[in-house]
Amino acid sequence: MSGAGRALAYVFETGTLASKRAFFLRAEPLLLKDIDAEQSFRPEYLRLKQTKWSVVPRLDDGAYDLGLVLLTKHKEENFANIARGWALLAPGGRLVCAGANDDGAASLEKQVGKAFGLVDQMSKFHCRVFWLDKGERAPPDYWRGLAGLQPVGAGPWLSQPGIFSWDRVDDGSALLAAHLPDDLAGTVADFGCGWGYLSRHLLDHCSAIIRLDMIDAEHRAVEAARANVADPRATAHWLDLIAEAAPATYDAIVCNPPFHAGRAAQPALGQGFIAAASRALKPGGRFYMVANRGLPYEPLLKEHFASFETLADNNKFRVSRAIR
Length: 324
Description:
single chain, alpha/beta, Rossmann fold, 7-stranded mixed sheet, 16 strands, about 30% helix, about 30% strand
């Protein structure tokens, strides 16, 4: 359980807040009953499915007396979830938010207090917990706008907070796209598809592709990819490729692991994608990956593939091609 989750549990364990039927956005397991949990990240969703809670990737309506929001380090995602939480409450319902100080929870608390007015707050486990009651003051229009798909810059893309590089084409994906060949054919997959930039690039440039599977562990990314890639050859899948099998075997796979930027302490996640790609490729199939050049992926490419080579290296990202 995260520190914010522990702090949230504490306010109920001590009787500071009364437990009622509630929803829980960005949910993680707590010792509370009568919870309708929302968790869009597939590994956490599968973990919550082992509890007695009702869990879905997205809650769209309701009239709850109590709502819980676990805050993240992403400001826009928090704005969106607070606005959605407010909409899920019945009039007079209470919304409780918890987040880590290191992720900016104290600053967010001030912004929420200015927008709504707070009933109370507390500090525990290096985290902030604060709550408000649903009155006549609505969330700012900007917060509500972030709660759904919206344009990315001036381009033709739609995205939403909570997706890797949600508001721009990240440099790694752009570098990988520039080094993908146009002769990819047959059955192809985009592992960790995000909001669909690489998938659409493939379909626009590789006419011999007959099927493209867009796969991501974040449900909001899958929603965006479906909106951005309107091609009958493409199908989006909400899967955790580390723990769940890919839906097919492939002639080629492209991959920009969404955790290589700023999370160098978690290379095992990217390593899991490499292993999953090797399992899902046909013999002779090609694997194209971009990753932070400082991560130790080359030994694993050597272990799982017959050969590999570096196609590009700009001192920040490295593009590799491996043959199964």
